[in-house]
Amino acid sequence: LWRQRRRSCCRLGPGGPGAVMEAKKMNLPRGPENLCFDKDEFMKPDFDVDHFVSDCRKRVQLEELREDLELYYKLLKTAMVELINKDYADFVNLSTNLVGMDKALNQLSVPLGQLREEVMSLKSCVSEGIQAVDDRMTKQEDIRRKKMCVLRLIHVIQSVERIEKILHSQGTKELSSLEGNSPLLTGQVLERIATEFNQLQFHAVQSKGMPLLDKVRPRIAGITAMLQQSLEGLLLEGLQTSNVDIIRHCLRTYATIDKTRDAEALVGQVLVKPYIDEVVVEQYVQSHPNGLQAMYNRLLEFVPHHCRLLREVTGGAISR
């Protein structure tokens, strides 16, 4: 019975069946002054039935406790009915106000549908505008790339024409003379050509694969052959005559066009190889008392004696 009274008190709260309510959030109805218990005991979070009964038995008999609990239980039921009746008008008004709500919602569906169509139409227009901008930007980028290709080809042709003009100014009268048998160019002229040739190679590489470049390739090949032939001839002349200016111009030109390995190969072919062929032979070893040692000594003499001028020019010992 006592546990039933406790559950009845709890069912009055807004939290649903069995919810524990705080005293601050809900005030229980007042009972008679002569009740043997304190109504607020039911609302304590740590309420315990056994402890409650044990405490009340210290003051009254069980029969009196039962009568007081039944009396307060009736008060709780009455308070619950009054609470429901108090809010009943609001429930009735709510149901009345909802009359015609479906019709109002249906009336909103038409303008909302029109608004949705307008939004979708606007979205489509924006998407088309974005696509048009993207297409135009792509086309503009393609035009920019083609423009750069044309500019590179123009640079190639201009470089070829400038080099050919330099060659003509040195006595070359026909383009066919670039293929061979033309007079050797001077060191200063070679440096001018090499500088222009560097630009020519750069723009030619950037224009690789373009049809117009293929038409210019024979002229580029003629310039390359003339440049290489003149460099080799002048370097040999400089080495044979020990001409510092010629050697300096040639080596500087080789460095300008990034062909220093060609110069090294030429020196190896015309200087190193003949000397090695002359010294490193069996007859040389047999004809000297200390043949092997003498051969080594001759090899060590090659750089100081035969490459002295090259070392001085490349090492900066001889200034212009």
From TrEMBL:
Entry's Gene Ontology cellular component terms: Golgi membrane; Golgi transport complex
Keywords, in A-Z order: Golgi apparatus, Membrane, Protein transport, Transport
Family annotation (Pfam families): COG2_N
Superkingdom as given in the UniProt entry: Eukaryota
Residues making up the signal peptide according to the UniProt record: none
Compartments, as annotated in UniProt: Golgi apparatus membrane
Any one GO BP annotation for this protein: Golgi organization
Membrane topology: Peripheral membrane protein
Domain Conserved oligomeric Golgi complex subunit 2 N-terminal stretches: 35-108
Similarity comment: Belongs to the COG2 family.
Stated name of the protein: Conserved oligomeric Golgi complex subunit 2
